[in-house]
Amino acid sequence: MPLHNRDIAGQFDEVADLLEIQGANTFRVRAYRNAARTLRDLPHSIIDMVEAGEKLTELPGIGKDLASKIETIVKTGKFPQLDKLKKKVPAGLTEIKGIAGLGPKRVEKLYEALGVEDLKGLKKAAEDGRVRELSGFGRKTEENILHELETRGSGTRRSLLSEAESRAEPLVDYLDSIDGVDKVVVAGSYRRRKETVGDLDVLVSCTKNSRVMQRFIDYEDVEEVVSQGETRASVILRGGLQVDLRVVASSSYGAALVYFTGSKAHTVQVRKMGQEQGLKINEYGVFEGNKRVAGKTEEGVYEVLGLPYIEPELREKRGEFEAALDNALPELVTLSDIKGNLHNHTKASDGSATLREMAEAAKAQGWAYLAITDHSKALRIANGLDEERLAKQIDEIDALNDELSDITLLKSIEVDILENGSLDLPDTILQRLDLRVCSVHSHFGLSRDKQTRRLLRAMDNPCFNILGHPTGRLIGSREAYPVDMERVIDHAKENGCVLEINAQPQRLDLDDVYCKIACEVGVKLAISTDAHTPHHFGFMRYGIDQARRGWATAEDVVNTRSLKGLRELMTR
DNA sequence: GCCGTTTTCGGCCCGACTGTTTTCAGTCG
């Protein structure tokens, strides 16, 4: 029985693939994919909705038919339609469809003509030279299939945004230096600041047809050229990251930027709105008949649609059009709004710098305050502080603050939330601190109900200020622990607690979706670097990115406040 | 299969590149 929205979404995607291979109506196929996306984006459990008897048809892309299918899946754990489809065609065909260059038509042909049912069969057929005999296929296609089968797995992983940045920045500098190049920007999910990036979509505008395409192919990190044309090319960089380059004239720059920034769902909506007004929108501009009415700037494209500029981080079709039409888009928080950092470690636990080094580095960032939040004693592996050591650190910070100018160290702790929801240190010492970050570092495997009650109980303690890395996830390596985050958010609201956006690139926890809910409910956020060395202060901008994707304004974030304002928010 | 200031039918985003063709289908983003 599926437990998560994404399980049901996965089944819908599978139905879409199988229908497509059978040559079903493409719009019907799209309907399943749209519904799958809706389910993945949904911040709460679809199962809860079904059990509460809520109307699923109010969700975008879910009509009467799909609503009843979801109900069947939730109530019986079975999806008869999918089972039926699998009887008609082998389920292994969906993995063949995952091979680059093989879409529904070719997969169907491979199956019908050669009896290829899975990757193994495909490999055999290609090695035997039977693929090239099929009409519509050829020697080259067969070679590509074999190449794909061999190199699979290496380049399919999504990269952390921070990793992608380290590849993108030198490439942008390189392209920027080419004669005739006007602007270079990395669009796609990178520009939307998504936490992971599948590939890099680089957009270049140039005045005249420069030699940018050839120079791109010549870039020293290019390992393989996948495709190359006049205005588009795809390459694989060493390490496996794919880069797609698109070259447009400066007059089309804005339209191309909207188009290549995406998300796909966002740009589809942009074009739809254009169509409703009798306009054709593509990457070259906005056209009324043959006349270009916009396209040089992004602002211009949105303007002809009667919309204000929409920030890239909001372009996920998660309500940005409705908000834009209402003139209710949020004024997103920026890095320069940040006045301090509320989660940081020193040598006292598992950090590598002293109090003074951390303070000086924070001052250099232009921050007014820095909370020192070493671990508490339960986290023995990190040399967590007991009552006595914390008392000593309190005295050290008091002494240091007397010496320091333009920066204030805040006495704090990252105190463990124990299995039963109590905090790892007695209230008597916690009360002597300026604020407390409370985190889960153990017992990730509790049931959803127990985990939720653990967090709620912790928040009942008046010493509780900030919930550190609220779901415990590590992107790509550890799932969030099961917890009813909506209840946690509501409880935080009732108790004046703050939720952290942990800015470590592999955490970014809260994620964008919960961040948006927190802001809607009126729960405040703390964007913190969880620094273990001063070098980690640079992570702040990733936290900002995530907050912006979650529609957060400066008002929503506690560490945009002055020290005085912050202290007020940390008093319950 | 969804959706509706042109509502219960008839629409549903749009263009580039490749490999196969000999004018284009298939795939991709």
From TrEMBL:
Its cofactor is Mg(2+). It catalyses: 2'-deoxyribonucleotide-(2'-deoxyribose 5'-phosphate)-2'-deoxyribonucleotide-DNA = a 3'-end 2'-deoxyribonucleotide-(2,3-dehydro-2,3-deoxyribose 5'-phosphate)-DNA + a 5'-end 5'-phospho-2'-deoxyribonucleoside-DNA + H(+); a 5'-end 2'-deoxyribose-2'-deoxyribonucleotide-DNA = (2E,4S)-4-hydroxypenten-2-al-5-phosphate + a 5'-end 5'-phospho-2'-deoxyribonucleoside-DNA + H(+); DNA(n) + a 2'-deoxyribonucleoside 5'-triphosphate = DNA(n+1) + diphosphate. Residues 54-73, 94-113, 129-148 form the Helix-hairpin-helix DNA-binding motif class domain. It is found in: Cytoplasm. Its EC number is 2.7.7.7, 4.2.99.18. GO terms for molecular function: class I DNA-(apurinic or apyrimidinic site) endonuclease activity; DNA binding; DNA-directed DNA polymerase activity; phosphoric ester hydrolase activity; zinc ion binding. Keywords: DNA damage, DNA repair, DNA replication, DNA synthesis, DNA-directed DNA polymerase, Methylation, Nucleotidyltransferase, Sodium, Transferase, Ubl conjugation. One of its GO terms (biological process) is DNA repair. Residues 3-316 form the DNA-directed DNA polymerase X domain. It comes from the Bacteria. InterPro entries: DNA-dir_DNA_pol_X, DNA_pol_B_palm_palm, DNA_pol_lamdba_lyase_dom_sf, DNA_Pol_thumb_sf, DNA_pol_X_beta-like, HHH_MUS81, Hlx-hairpin-Hlx_DNA-bd_motif, NT_sf. One of its GO terms (cellular component) is cytosol. Residues 340-419 form the Polymerase/histidinol phosphatase N-terminal domain. Repair polymerase that plays a key role in base-excision repair. During this process, the damaged base is excised by specific DNA glycosylases, the DNA backbone is nicked at the abasic site by an apurinic/apyrimidic (AP) endonuclease, and POLB removes 5'-deoxyribose-phosphate from the preincised AP site acting as a 5'-deoxyribose-phosphate lyase (5'-dRP lyase); through its DNA polymerase activity, it adds one nucleotide to the 3' end of the arising single-nucleotide gap. This is DNA polymerase beta.
